[in-house]
């Protein structure tokens, strides 16, 4: 079994009309044994920027602390929040720096940039960026997430429709992956507010 599958995970980010949603499952496991059912994989960098970290849970938490530290230094020096594109480059550089003993994480970055244009991207554990204009996925459930998102996604969705779409895609995908599941956690970010919702899923 791959080290990326050790804890199991499912992550997706999707863009709408001047908004984005990022969703993850809530299971923390050790191979097929479930350890926790309320594990957090999506982290806030600032009000309009979030990162989801799939892969090895311990590396995800270490990496998040490193990124918060780097972002706070940036805020002190620049006196402003980091743009999503800049933050994606920072994450990429941090991962590539550790390429000979990498963090076993595959990040999903989602944020609102200039003029509230949504930005999403994902990368592998060495920091190779993959940009998208519709959705990005990562984790052990990524194959079924690709299929579900591909069939459900529509461009320029309003925030409520976007929430419904990403929630259905996540819940139907984790049912096809035994290493992720136990409900979902969805963040819906618009220029004026952030809505955080918890989804109930199958508990088996």
UniProtKB/TrEMBL annotation:
Signal peptide: none
Superkingdom of the organism of origin: Eukaryota
Entry's localization field: Cytoplasm; Nucleus
Keyword annotations from UniProtKB, A to Z: Cytoplasm, Nucleus, Proteasome
A biological-process GO annotation: proteasome-mediated ubiquitin-dependent protein catabolic process
Entry GO CC: cytoplasm; nucleus; proteasome core complex, beta-subunit complex
Cited InterPro entries: Ntn_hydrolases_N (IPR029055), Proteasome_beta_3 (IPR033811), Proteasome_bsu_CS (IPR016050), Proteasome_sua/b (IPR001353), Proteasome_suB-type (IPR023333)
Family, per entry: Belongs to the peptidase T1B family.
The protein's role, per its UniProt record: Non-catalytic component of the proteasome, a multicatalytic proteinase complex which is characterized by its ability to cleave peptides with Arg, Phe, Tyr, Leu, and Glu adjacent to the leaving group at neutral or slightly basic pH. The proteasome has an ATP-dependent proteolytic activity. Component of the proteasome, a multicatalytic proteinase complex which is characterized by its ability to cleave peptides with Arg, Phe, Tyr, Leu, and Glu adjacent to the leaving group at neutral or slightly basic pH. The proteasome has an ATP-dependent proteolytic activity.
Record's protein name: Proteasome subunit beta
Organism: Musa troglodytarum (fe'i banana)
């Amino acid at each position: 079994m791959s080290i990326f599958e050790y804890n199991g995970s499912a992550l997706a980010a999707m863009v709408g009309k001047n908004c984005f949603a990022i969703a993850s499952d809530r299971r923390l496991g050790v191979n097929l044994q479930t350890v926790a059912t309320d594990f957090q994989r999506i982290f806030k960098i600032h009000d309009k920027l979030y990162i989801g970290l799939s892969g090895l849970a311990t590396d995800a938490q270490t990496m998040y602390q490193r990124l918060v530290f780097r972002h706070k230094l940036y805020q002190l020096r620049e006196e402003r929040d980091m743009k999503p594109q800049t933050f994606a480059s920072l994450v990429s550089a941090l991962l590539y720096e550790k390429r000979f003993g990498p963090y076993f994480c595959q990040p999903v970055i989602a944020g609102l940039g200039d003029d509230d244009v949504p930005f999403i991207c994902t990368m592998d554990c060495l920091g190779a960026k993959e940009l998208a204009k519709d959705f990005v996925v990562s984790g052990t459930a990524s194959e079924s997430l690709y299929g579900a998102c591909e069939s459900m996604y529509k461009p320029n969705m309003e925030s409520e429709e976007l929430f419904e779409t990403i929630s259905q895609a996540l819940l139907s995908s984790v049912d096809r992956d035994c290493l992720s599941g136990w409900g979902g956690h969805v963040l819906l970010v618009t220029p004026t507010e952030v809505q955080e919702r918890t989804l109930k899923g199958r508990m088996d």
